[in-house]
Amino acid sequence: MATPALPVVKAQPQAQAQADTLLRFEDVSMSFEQPVLEAVSFQLARGDTKVLLGEAGTGKTLILKLALGLLKPDAGRITALGEEISAMREQDMYPLRRRIGMVFQESALFDSLTVEENVAYRLIEETGQITDEIHARVLEVLEFVELAQTYKLFPSELSGGMRRRVAIARAIITQPEVLLYDSPTGGLDPVTSNTIIELVVKQRDVYHTGSLLVTHRLQDAFTMASHYFDRNLNKMVPVEDGSSRNVHTTFLILRDRKIIFEGTAPELLRCHDPYIREYLS
Q1: Residue 39 burial (C-beta neighbours within 10 Å; 0-12, 13-18, 19+)
Q2: CB-based contact 200:224 (threshold 8 Å)
Q3: Residue 67 phi/psi, 5° resolution?
């Protein structure tokens, strides 16, 4: 399949207020034995979600690691929450990471810790113990993911979907301004996957958190781009046909080390590039 010749479609205006830009990649390149990313540029605005799509090995998870400052790019510049993290020392990253939440693949919970200890882990690092205030905060975020009754359980006592929801609770306990999701529905059945995506949409629409989300499930991506969380009904509902509601969700498609598409769901569906059409089929 030929590499798309279409220019990148921009979902957001080129000029955006600095205060509203949570994350910015500028001509970022990264290699290991072979180049993985070449001159990747995009920006994430406050309250927006960008869904990273692409075949395995195209650098989607690598982008999350770069955004969290776990790796440094070979070239280019990365700015997170107003700080240039591509030039920041590791010891200076700790306060910034408190403002960025990460939901890892397969949840990455500590088996020897209870749900409460897992969720409170970053706060316990600061206090050395679970205080009454931390306990209350744990229950609050567990209530958000509808698992408040599980705080005394261990991960081995939870289903796969429940572990993913606990991982989301752990990521949001510090009230981050940016959330990074690495395949949060990978390996889950469709019903459980929809539950997880509903939580992602709830976080987007209730707290207006900016997010980067990697997924291999096109259904999840299009669900996010066509639904919103109704606080009165307390559930995710579809956007009505003809509605002007902005769901603040756009797509990035990676291929051949570059971003080949950036845009909304309707723009993606209208794209006639042969590779993208085959990828969506």
Answers
A1: middle
A2: yes
A3: -65, -30
**Residue 39 in tokens:** 């001159």
Contacts of 17 (CB under 8 A, 6+ apart): none
Buried b (16+ CB within 10 A) or exposed e, 227-241: bbbeeeeeebeeeee
Of 1.20.1250.20, 3.30.70.360, 3.40.50.300, 3.20.20.70, the CATH number of 20-99+176-185+209-280 is 3.40.50.300
Q: In angstroms, rounded to a whole number, what is the distance separating the alpha carbons of residues 272 and 161? A: 36
Q: Residue 72 to residues 31, 90, 155, 257, 276: CA-CA distances in angstroms?
A: 11, 10, 32, 16, 30
pLDDT tens-digit profile of 182-241?
999 988 999 999 999 999 999 999 999 999 999 989 999 999 999 999 999 999 999 998
CB 9 within 8 A of CB 267: yes
Domains of the chain, by residue range, sit at: 20-99+176-185+209-280
C-alpha to C-alpha distance for 168 and 164, rounded to whole angstroms: 6
Other Cβ atoms less than 10 A from the Cβ of 60: the count is 23
Q: Which residues of 88-97 are buried (b: 16+ CB within 10 A; e: fewer)?
A: eeeeebeebb
How far apart are alpha carbons 274 and 1 in whole angstroms?
Answer: 7
β-strand pairing of 100-103 with 178-182:
parallel
Q: What is the pTM of this model?
A: 0.87
